[in-house]
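A quick aside before the break. I want you to see a complete sequence-to-structure record at least once, exactly as it would be stored in a machine-readable document. Don't worry about memorizing anything.
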Amino acid sequence: MTTWLINQDVGMAIARARDRVVPTPDQIAAFLAEAKDAMGDVQALALTADMPRNMSVAGDIAEIRIHGTLTKAPDWFAAYYGGGNCTYRSIVLALAHAQANSQVRSVILNIDSPGGTVDGLHDAIGALQSFTKPLSVRASCACSAAYALAANGGKITAESRAANFGSIGTAVSFYIDENVVTLTNSDSPDKRPDVTKTEGKKVVVEYLDAVNDLFVEAIATGRGGGLTEQTVAKKFGRGAVLLAEEAMARGMIDKVEKPTLGYSRSDSENSDEEAEAMDLATRKSKHPALVAEVLKDAATAPPPAAVQQPPAATAGGGANEKDKQMEIKTLKDLKSQLPDLYEEAVQSGVTQERERVVAHIDLGEAYEAMPTALGFIKSGDDLRPTVASKYLAAGAKRKAVGDRQQETDAVAAVVNANGGPPAAPAAVEKDIGDLVADAMGLPTVEQIRAKKKVA
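That is the input. The structure line, written in tokens, reads:
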């Protein structure tokens, strides 16, 4: 029985693949050759000149990449159906290598993982807890077992607002074959619990609870600051996956990174206003029609209600004659009598709309769900939890479709190796330009070309 600390959709994809796909001996051999860092004596390998594949050094900072499904030993199915495979052993090896390298002064853990198996996790956590150099984390996805690693890796920074954290819980899946009958000796009925019955389920859940207690304890210890296991259990999502800002609000992470700007300057030289303007320029270059329409709508929309200031007092203690006559009932009155306040209100509305649009585009790109993002942008929806959940659903659906296609391709590859028919090519989806054109009601490139030919 393999116990998992992993996102459900990824875990199910791996389980389905194990049930349906049989890798060839050549595929297994090639995979194991690529996974050499996960084998051999860790301490001996750490003293060699060869740097682990999941590690790089720039100056005095080392980066250790923790990408894909986490397992104790190399796993072909995790690699091909779990978004890649990273072994706990390779993490321990990289930490040992960084500890032994006098050039390395600090380490960044770059995490993009849905989680993995329980087996091997606590070895990696122990290596993190005994590491003596400064650690920090940058993550785009740190769920389940991967979040336990992140919690023990120092300050956690989300790479974007769309980064995922949480999925804290322990699970195991059983596939029941009615043709299999299992019996145990009289004194060991819990050795093979019958999970189709209440008593059998109870035995398994008690085991999962015990494993989860260790999991939660590791997270509470890693985050520190007096965090209790009860707080982790009650406030860290109760098994749900959380977006970066919600995770930060609950104390699960420490910072959400601003969008990259396309060129680098020191943080002290970049103001928030410059960052916002340059980010808009980037979005405009990628989605010109969409941004133009949104900014046009925002500029013509009524500004937020202005709070009228009391008239300024004159030297004699009363209001001057001009202030007495000032009366604002319409936007036109506001613009003519208080132009600076009017412009400030308009810019506030434009900024709010810009932030709303950029947030939806970020999530649409992160979850490959641009049609969903375009729909929310045009409908005026803000980024509420119910809206964010639809992005998660769209991303999960797309991944499920991709998983099914991968399974089909893998099966087809096996069939082809045995002289069977070739696999059907995967369907080509519309790119972002076509999606924006559809949303705006604009003609496609093919339609324009056809029209020119007719003319």
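Two observations worth writing down. The chain has two domains: 4-256, 269-454. Residues 261-279, 304-320 have pLDDT under 50 and may be disordered. We'll return to this after the break.
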